[in-house]
Amino acid sequence: MKENGSPCVANQLTCACLLEPDTSGRRVQTNDPGSRTRGRGTAVPVRHRASGAVGAWCSVASPRLESSQQPRRAREKALVTGGGGFFGFRLGRALARRGTSVILMDLHKPYWEVPEGVIFLQGDIRDYDTLYKACAEVDCVFHTASCGMSGPEQLRKELVESVNIGGTNNVINVCCEQGISRMVYTSTVNVVFAGKPIEDGDEDSAPCVPLDMHIDHYSRTKAVAEHMVIAANGRSLKGGGLLRTCVLRPSGIYGPEERRHLHRVNVERKLFSFSFGDPNARMNWVHVENLVTAHVLAAEGLSPERGCVANGQAYFINDGESVNLFEWLIPLVSRSSSIRAWTLTTDTYRVGSDWSLRLLFPLSSSLKDWATFFTPLSAPSHRSAEQCSRSI
Predict the structure, then answer these.
(1) Which of 146, 201, 245, 331 is packed most tightly, with the most Cβ within 10 A?
(2) Name one Pfam family in it (predicted).
(3) Residues with Cβ < 8 Å from 136, sequence gap 6 or more?
(4) SS3 of 211, please?
(5) Is 377 within 8 Å of 385 (Cβ atoms)?
C-alpha cells in the first residue's frame, strides 16, 4: 500500500500531543444542544439515553455540505471513512436523507442494507491510490475509521498505528490534493484520559495528556492523529483555498443495534457481566443520533456560510449527563438473559495498564465451542463526566 506525503511511522508517537491554538480567536460554547437557536430550519431531535425518546430540540438549519473551492453542483458529495461500521453507516444514511450524495468507505461491508443515494466502496484508507480515487469531486470528508479500540486487534500495535496515524495522514493529504475544503475527524474522549477521574472537565480544562501517560495504544494513536488533523487546519489546497478541519471527541456510543459494548458482555449469548474498576464511578455516553447530529453541525461549522466557526476546534460530544456504567448495563443484561447478572469487580491499577485480561467463555454445551474474549483495561470505569463548554 502506498502513502503520499510525509511517512507515518511509529516514531511519530514521540511528538507532543499539543493542540495548536485557533488563530481566529473564536471560542464557542456548549453542551446543551437545545439551549441556542442557530438559525431557521427544521428542528433536529436530540435523543437521550434513558428511553431513546426525543427529550430536547436543536433548532438548526438543515445543513448543506458545500465546498467553497468547487463550483456548486446540484447535489453535494461526502465521503465517510469507516462507513461500514455502526456509527459511520448511520452518519452516511443521515447525510443521504438530507440530499447529499454519500460514499461509504470501509474494509468491511455494512451489516445493513445500503440505502438509496449511498455508494459503498470496499477499500483501505492506508491505500493512498484507492482513497484518492474515492475522494474525486467530494466536498467534505468525515473520517470515522479507526482500529484497536477493543478486541484482539488492540494488541497489534503496528496495525493500530498504520490505520489510526497512517490512515489519517492519507486522508489529510488526499483532501489537499483533491481540493476538499472540509474534514471532520472522529476522535475519542480517551485522548484526555490518563487513568484519573475528570470532574466537570471541558475543552480548556481537560487538554490532551502527554503521550506516555495514555493507558492504551489506541488512545495514544488517536491523540497523535487528532494533533495531525488540528495542525492541518489552514493547509493550502491544490487549486486554491484552504483545508478546514475540526475534531469531535465522543464518549461511549450507544443506540439500536450497537454491538461493541453489549457484545462485550455477551448479552445475546446469555453470559454474565464483568466489571472493572470503581463500581461507583460515573461516565458519559452519547446516543448515536446525537453524534450524527454533531458531525453534521461540525461540517456546517467549517463552511464560510457559518463563518468557519469550527475551524481548528476540538469538541467533547456526549448526552450531557453522566451515569454509573454498571447500574446502566446490569438491568439490560438481566432483561436480555435468563441468567441473573452478577458482577466481579477488580482494581485495574493493580493489574497494570499494559495488560489485557483474557477470559474464556463457553458459548454452548460443546467443549469445542470456546472463544477468547479480550477486555481492555481502559478509561470508562474510572472516568467521570466531561462537560462540554463549547457549541458548534
Answers:
(1) 245
(2) 3Beta_HSD
(3) 178
(4) helix
(5) no
| Rounded CA separation 221/217 (Å) | 6
All three cell numbers of 105, joined, read 468507505
In this structure, the chain runs to a length of 392
pLDDT at 331: 65
- For residue 64, the SS3 value is coil
Distance CA 25, CA 232 (A): 17
Contacts of 180 (CB under 8 A, 6+ apart): 67, 69, 135, 138, 139, 140, 141, 174, 237, 243
CA angle 347, 353, 359 (to 5 degrees): 70
Cα(86)–Cα(97) distance, rounded to whole angstroms? 17
DSSP β-bridge partners for residue 284: 322
> 62 or 335, which is more confident?
335
Give the residue numbers annotated as catalytic, written as ranges.
218
User: The C-alpha cell of 37 is what?
Assistant: 437557536
CB 60 within 8 A of CB 39: yes
Rounded Cα gap, residues 5 and 110, in angstroms: 30
- pLDDT tens-digit series, residues 334-353: 655 444 444 444 444 443 43
DSSP category for residue 242? B
- For residue 192, give the nearest of 213, 177, 174, 171 by alpha carbon: 213
Whole-structure pTM over 0.70, yes or no? Answer: no
Bridge partners, residue 372, by sequence: 360
203, 388 Cβ separation under 8 angstroms: yes
Using alpha carbons, select from 359, 185, 157 the residue that is nearest to residue 265.
359
What residue type is 220 in one-letter code?
R
User: And the C-alpha cell for 159?
Assistant: 496495525
Q: Which residues contact 298 (CB under 8 A, 6 or more apart)?
A: 184, 246, 248, 310, 315, 392
